[in-house]
Amino acid sequence: MSDFTVLRAAPVWRRLVGVLTVLEITIGAVCLLFIAVLVFFQALQRYLPIPQVAWTGEISQFCLAWLTFSVMGVLITTGGHITLEILDSLKNQLVVRVIQVVAMLLSVSIAVLLVVEAVHLIQTQGVITSSVLRIPMSWAYVPILVGLISAVIRGLIQAIRIALTGPILADVDDDEAVLA
Questions:
Q1: Which of 7, 71, 117, 174 is deepest in the core (most CB within 10 A)?
Q2: How far apart are CA 115 and CA 121, in angstroms?
């Protein structure tokens, strides 16, 4: 493979990842918008003389789960997930690199186990329907599965990236500026 082919493939890969990131964040934003609108509508219908609709709460609950899992992969690759950065201050960068790779592989392992469970739920929960809308519960688990698969792929890529290029260190200057 020539150097030109490698250079040309990198922008295509970055563009694909960029499109997937925008898609995942868009799904998360739409879910957040649905949650806000439907919860406000629920609060409004308590005080107005209009008939109560129960499906708003059910959709809000589904959207909360979909929001959480749809942006899971994006948070892993952008460093937006919860981390303990106390070990990142160690002087030996090789140790920090190993710790970050192991932590990322643990996250990937947990996501793989969740993927297995999501597949199992999709296969077995088609008989059960939601209480108000009567949506098969297997449908509710599909967006969760997609988000988990994204987290596995992105977590593996991040672990390889950390192993090859070094640890991702926190920007302490930003934290000090916020505290000041």
A1: 71
A2: 10
Look at the block and give the residue holding tokens 């898609």: 23
**Predicted confidence band at 175 (pLDDT cuts at 50, 70, 90)?**
low
What single DSSP character describes residue 129? B
CA 10 – CA 30 distance, rounded (Å): 30
Whether the Cβ atoms of residue 144 and residue 65 lie closer than 8 Å to each other: yes
- The dihedral built from the CA positions of residue 22, 24, 29 and 30, taken in this order, carries a sign that is positive
Please give the structure tokens belonging to residue 79: 């460093």
Q: pLDDT, tens digit, for every residue of 63-75? A: 999 999 999 888 8
pTM (2 decimals)? 0.78
Contact 129, 137 (CB under 8 A): yes
Residue with tokens 């688990």: 141
Tokens at 123, concatenated? 């296969």
Q: What is the DSSP string of 70-93?
A: HSHHHHHHHT-S----GGGG-S-H
Look up residue 30 and give its two tokens.
């739409």
Separation between Cα atoms, residue 138 and residue 124, nearest integer Å:
8
DSSP state of 133: T
Encoded tokens for 109? 């392992």
